[in-house]
Amino acid sequence: MKVALLTLGCDKNTVDSERYLAQLVAHGATPTDDASEAEVILVNTCGFIDAAKQESIDALVQAGQLKIDGACQAVVAVGCMVQRHKQELLDALPEVDLFLGASEVDRLVPELAARGVIAPDPIAEHPGVRLYGGDLPHVRYLKVSEGCDHGCAFCAIPLMRGKHRSFSVEDVVREAQLLELQGAREVNLVAQDLAHYGRDRRDGVRLPELLEALLRETSIPWLRNLYLYSTGITPRLLEVIAGSPRIVPYLDMPVQHASDAVLTRMRRPERQKTIREKLVRFRDAVPGVAIRTTCIVGFPGETEDDFRQLLDFLGEVRFDRVGAFTYSPQEGTRAHDMVDDVPEVVKRERLERLTELQREITAERYEERIGATTTVLVDRPASDEGPAMARAPWQADDVDGVTWVDADAAPGSFVEVEIDEVVDDYDFAATARRVLDAAPAAPRRIRALPMLAGGSTAGSFGR
Predict the structure, then answer these.
(1) pTM of structure
(2) Among residues 69, 72, 71, 68, which one has the least CA distance to residue 43?
(3) Is 182 exposed, middle or buried (0-12, 13-18, 19+ CB in 10 A)?
């Protein structure tokens, strides 16, 4: 059986998809990135905001059409959107054969085996608990916990993923070792809030101790922290990050707003003063750190003065990058019952103003990096069509642009470069000085490891 898997949404979905794919391959499936030739099409859905929901629905409709026109025997929908809206999807999409929410993924293999499209028993050669199907196998994501306890008024994640559950440090370390054996050179730690790691456990291990265990028990060159609330920035965490060159000086810290009135209505855990203080501490402890954030505009009750406070704050603290989006009410959240009193035209206008301001800030911060010497990780080699594509420490995969460099280096290699110029707003051109660390040998194929405690039994083909 050939299976095509489309992953939508966040990097945590990517981790789940890699587990789905490993399960299917273990039962005889062959991955393909051509959905038109697949017997099974699996869509890992996202239900975070309306645009993501629509993207998921469109993908399922397209997959259903392929079932009519092509070789497809079954269309399967999994993930967050199914968890929240299963009945509505059942009624609206009869072309989809199977809907499995995030808590039902153990049914994937039995359901497909019952339909006769995969073998009911595992084959002898097992690919491992996670199987990567994209084109950057040296860049991987490691989920350290599931769910969320924060209760932000706008967010439906707790309704889709449940309460926060930290995986044991032993399980996280073993999975990191698996990723390293599979060729990982950069591992991105992900969770709804990395800083919440360990608070639900009784072993005393928190994020700093987890990072120390990963440094001690693996040789992964780059460890990157994504999605870390400012409330979790402690002196102990700063000490660990500042003390290891293998922890990338990068922070993805969602603030969502800077008006205390809006933050209060959002039920966010901090206020502008404490957010500012945490940013100062981080920058003092980790010189040159790149900090990315996300913001919501148009939340119920947001006045022009509230929005101006957000713009002033962004102009003051000067994040390297900002991802911004307009508010849309999500069923089941506390904000859903608030009056959505900011007109859509105003939301869009404010989004444009914020985006333009941050474009200027990013351009200025990027200009400051010209002439610097840094290390980049090569993602794609040079070819007749152009130079090698790489990323500097301040460039997270898929969100922060790339660095173009004329270097004879394979994907997964580290190269010392000098930054020459900014190109296309968010990319850099650089001159190679020397290859620091060549790519490792071909990734090893290994036996399966046990599932992470409390995690899904999921996997990902394509990203």
Answers:
(1) 0.86
(2) 72
(3) buried
